[in-house]
């Protein structure tokens, strides 16, 4: 049995992960992050052309926002079932949601970049 305190820490961390992903997406959506070496959708193509940088990163920002919202929803959903399901099953569900969201975001971003 997982101690209740550890479960709460897990749900607080997962909530922050969702909020952080959503929050990071907003400046990219608004075009506030110029081409740089640290953050953003950095490919040779986006680094060469600022117009492509801003468009690709706006798409990435929307995807980050969406993934953050999905993670928050998954975290909230598993929190509601915390007393009726084994904790490791709920962790697995949230892990799969994160992995599939990030995989979708990367694939979607690369697909959209190929269309620019």
Task: Give a quick precis of the structure.
The protein is mostly helical. The chain contains 4 helices and no strands. It is elongated.
Describe the global form.
elongated
Indicate the proportion of strand residues.
Answer: under 5%
Note the quaternary state here: single chain
Largest sheet: none
* Gyration radius from CA atoms, angstroms: 17 Å
How many beta-strand elements? 0
How large is the count of helical segments? 4
Portion in helices: over 70%
Distance between the termini: 51 Å
Class per helix and strand makeup = mainly alpha
On the 0-100 scale, what is the average pLDDT?
94
List the uncertain runs. Answer: none
Order of helices and strands: HHHH
Please explain how this structure is put together.
The chain is an all-alpha fold. Helices cover 78% and strands 0% of the residues. The protein contains four helices and no strands. The protein has helices at 4-29, 44-48, 50-80, 87-115. The longest helix has 31 residues, at 50-80. 25% of the residues are buried.
Keywords:
116 residues; mainly alpha; 4 helices; elongated
């Amino acid at each position: 049995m997982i101690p209740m305190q550890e479960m709460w820490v897990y749900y607080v961390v997962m909530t922050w992960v969702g909020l952080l992903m959503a929050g990071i997406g907003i400046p990219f959506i608004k075009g506030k992050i110029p081409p740089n070496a640290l953050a953003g959708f950095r490919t040779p193509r986006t680094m060469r052309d600022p117009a492509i940088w801003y468009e690709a990163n706006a798409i990435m920002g929307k995807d980050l926002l969406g993934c953050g919202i999905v993670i928050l929803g998954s975290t909230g959903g598993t929190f509601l079932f915390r007393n009726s399901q084994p904790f490791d099953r709920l962790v697995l569900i949230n892990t799969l949601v994160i992995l599939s969201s990030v995989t979708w975001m990367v694939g979607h971003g690369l697909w959209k970049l190929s269309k620019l």
